[in-house]
Amino acid sequence: MSAESTERRILSVLEEDAQASYAEIAERADVSKPTVRKYIQKLEEEGVIVGYSADVDPKKLAGQSIALVGIDIASDCYVEATRNLKEIPEMEELYTSSGDHMLMAEVRAMDGDSLADVIEDKILALDGVTAAHPSFLQERLK
């Protein structure tokens, strides 16, 4: 088996279950535990694996609202605005985008009103941010 297919199988198991033990990964990827350990360490060092996370169903998350927010920024302010956006505590994730908006962000707050305040007072208030388009998450389907 090629190293690339071994990496892909190990990553596939981790993407399905980030909490899988080395033994579980080894069994499901059909490799040894030392091989799993070696590849995971290599992938972490190379920055392929950047972290481990839990998938959350927003409907079952009491006392918190989640929105995906499309953000547009004036091109001459892009670097400073993205730097400032990353500092907003309610900003869980921030991605560059090739879609309708320059950036996509996952924003979390206590409730819908608090989320609206974050968008208005912290995101739209930044120099260079020209628009923020929230989509509130309702129910996780998969």
List the helices and strands and how they pair.
Layout: H1 3-16, H2 22-29, H3 33-45, E1 65-73, H4 78-86, E2 91-96, E3 103-109, H5 112-123, E4 129-136
Antiparallel strand pairs: 1-3, 1-4, 2-3
Domain HTH asnC-type: 1-72
GO molecular function: sequence-specific DNA binding
InterPro entries: ArsR-like_HTH, AsnC-type_HTH_dom, Dimeric_a/b-barrel, LrpA1, Tscrpt_reg_AsnC-like, Tscrpt_reg_AsnC/Lrp_C, WH-like_DNA-bd_sf, WH_DNA-bd_sf
Structure description:
Helices cover 39% and strands 21% of the residues. The chain is of the alpha+beta class. The chain has 2 domains: 4-44, Orthogonal Bundle (Arc Repressor Mutant, subunit A), CATH 1.10.10; 63-135, Alpha-Beta Plaits (2-Layer Sandwich), CATH 3.30.70.920. Helix 1 (3-16) packs across helix 2 and helix 2 packs across helix 3. The protein is elongated and about 50 Å long.
